[in-house]
Design goal:
2 domains, 66% helix, mainly alpha, Substrate Binding Domain Of Dnak, Chain:A, Domain 2, two-stranded antiparallel ribbon, 140 residues, disordered N terminus
């Protein structure tokens, strides 16, 4: 109980400062795992950390779209073409990830490195999504 009082007091202080949401990581309450979670304004990120987070979120959105299109395309293909697409996609993923690692390496250790990496992932992912959408349109 004595350990809980400082935490509750700090929560009251945080809430009075209008700080965003407080969450506990994990399924069992462990006060050592308590973290402050701030929502990032990706319309106007103000710090490099926020920019990094926004580029990550943007990439994740693009990756989700890629996976949706890929899952739509697969069932439309005959078995031999489906196997070729799967092999091509695996090779493409390896290329994308390795290529973006290379792009990031120029800024290794810098705070902008994650932004470079996630921008690269997003751009290549969007291009690949367009390619898959074209296959989807042209295949019966």
């Amino acid at each position: 109980m004595r350990q809980l009082l400082p935490v509750l007091a700090s929560m009251l202080t945080f809430s009075s400062l209008n700080t965003p949401t407080m969450t506990i990581a994990g399924t069992t309450p462990d006060l050592r795992e308590m973290r402050l979670v701030q929502t990032v304004n990706c319309n106007n990120p103000q710090t490099q950390i926020a920019i990094n987070e926004c580029t990550k979120l943007s990439y994740q959105k693009a990756d989700k779209r890629l996976n949706q299109v890929y899952q739509q395309l697969l069932p439309t293909l005959e078995t031999s073409r489906k196997q070729k697409l799967i092999a091509a996609q695996l090779a493409w993923l390896k290329f994308r990830d390795t290529n973006c690692e290379f792009e990031r390496s120029r800024y290794e250790g810098g705070s902008i490195a994650p932004t470079i990496y996630f921008n690269c992932l997003e751009n290549l992912t969007k291009r690949r999504t367009q390619e898959l959408e074209e296959y989807l349109k042209s295949d019966p």
